[in-house]
Amino acid sequence: MMRVRVRYFASFREATGIDDEWVDTDAKNLRALFDEAMARHAGLDHEPAALVAVNDCMADWDARVGEGDEVLFFPPVAGG
Amino acid sequence: MMRVRVRYFASFREATGIDDEWVDTDAKNLRALFDEAMARHAGLDHEPAALVAVNDCMADWDARVGEGDEVLFFPPVAGG
Amino acid sequence: MSFSITDGPIDAGALRALVQDPHCGACVVFEGWVRNHNEGREVLGLEYEVYEPLAVSEGLRILAEARHRFGLSGVACVHRTGRLGLGEVAVVVVAAAAHRDEAFRACRYVIDEVKRRLPIWKKEHYRDGEARWVNCRHCVAADSEGLAAS
Amino acid sequence: MSFSITDGPIDAGALRALVQDPHCGACVVFEGWVRNHNEGREVLGLEYEVYEPLAVSEGLRILAEARHRFGLSGVACVHRTGRLGLGEVAVVVVAAAAHRDEAFRACRYVIDEVKRRLPIWKKEHYRDGEARWVNCRHCVAADSEGLAAS
Question: Which CATH architecture has domain D2-149?
């Protein structure tokens, strides 16, 4: 079991109703961590174009989660 | 025999040493008119990308010449 | 090479000055403007949310890629955050190169990657009072307590 | 839609204002700058010769083509004539459209056609005192009585 900080942005923040939370998890990768977040937050849903970052670096969904990581869940981006 | 005005631009003007001239000609098209100009002006030479205009409209080299036309001989352009 | 996020008006002239270089014969500028319609709906304004730490580092990465790929002399980008009204400039990209082909391709590359990769989100506010996060498949239209009501 | 020839500095901001439109989400600007080298030779400056009556009518034709092909809202171009120093702006094209793809393609189309079709000629003045009409295969280098000596 490890402890990570999870942050939600834009529509994900509105769907969960929170900016961030501390989570105790055994998730083996970031995808599994997002699945757990969906189980906790009814409004949160899969977005195929969603992105994820760990400790301010863009990451792959199958990257592993580490103790104390700050994980950023980004809904599909729309700059410009 | 018709009388036309011929004008030279940029490198063509420098090659002929004149801005323009009146010419009596039987040239059947603009290409033939340019050939006659080359015969008169030793410095003038074929430029494959040269353009021609008649009475301020772009024209094809095989277009016919008319009495009183103003014919503009343009060396290869280089705007921009 | 310069990438920044601002909550005030973008000075496109200052950005252009950043890339000026006597070796360059071509400069291409892209400006994104807030337009009054999207997908058939009348837009009143929009707001951007930007996660700045990563937007800036990833933005600089995009500029470095463009410089490397296209042999650019200079390239710069500024993106707005916060609320914008109709006609305001949301983003500017400038790219300068010896010849125009590189400048056009680099400018296009940067704006395409900015839209695809940066953690920036856009919420449009419509005349009918609704507001919606753009590009978000599942999001229900948010309520109207935002810009559209102000 | 506006095309003009000028012998003074080009005001890119004024040109951009001409194409502003609340329907447009994208504006692409091309600027051609006088650069300090060409084909390996050091350039000190250049001069343009323009045959204005036809440059303007053909220029307007190019803008109309771009507008028709790419569904543009606004498009404009200004080209310099006469002598220019290093770094000066020789030509500006602005194209505004609902989306960026049309704006990029239209801006590129206009500058490509301007360079290909308009009766405008460019003479480069080099550090070694020579001057040469650009694009002119057979021209011998002209003597140095022009800009390079001044």
Answer: Alpha-Beta Complex (3.90)
Nearest CA in chain A to C142: A14
Count of Cβ atoms closer than 10 Å to residue D145 Cβ:
10
What is the domain partition of chain C in residue ranges?
2-149
- Residue C139: pLDDT above 90? no
Question: Closest by alpha carbon to B51, among D79, D140, D32, D136?
Answer: D136
Cβ atoms of C107 and A65 closer than 8 Å:
no
- Residues of chain D positioned with their CB less than 8 A from the CB of C29: 28-31
**B and A touch per CB criterion (3+ pairs under 8 A):** no
Token duo for residue D39: 């084909």
CA distances for B14 relative to C48, C92, D110, angstroms: 59, 44, 29
Q: Is the dihedral of CA B1, B2, B3, B8 positive or negative?
A: negative
For C142, which DSSP code?
A: B
Class of domain A2-74: alpha beta
Mutate to test the interface with A, among C39, C89, C124, C139 (most CBs of A within 10 A): C139
Are C27 and D34 within 8 A, CB to CB?
no
Predicted TM-score of the model (pTM): 0.90
* pLDDT tens digits along C49-89: 999 999 999 999 999 999 999 998 899 999 999 999 999 99
Beta bridge partners of C131: C125, C142
CA of residue D24 relative to chain centroid, distance: 24
Domain boundary assignment for chain B: 2-74
Beta strands in chain A (DSSP E): 2-8, 20-25, 51-54, 57-59, 70-74
> A14 vs C136: CB contact, 8 Å cut-off?
no
CA–CA distance, C137 with A45 (Å, rounded to integer): 10
Q: Is ipTM over 0.95?
A: no
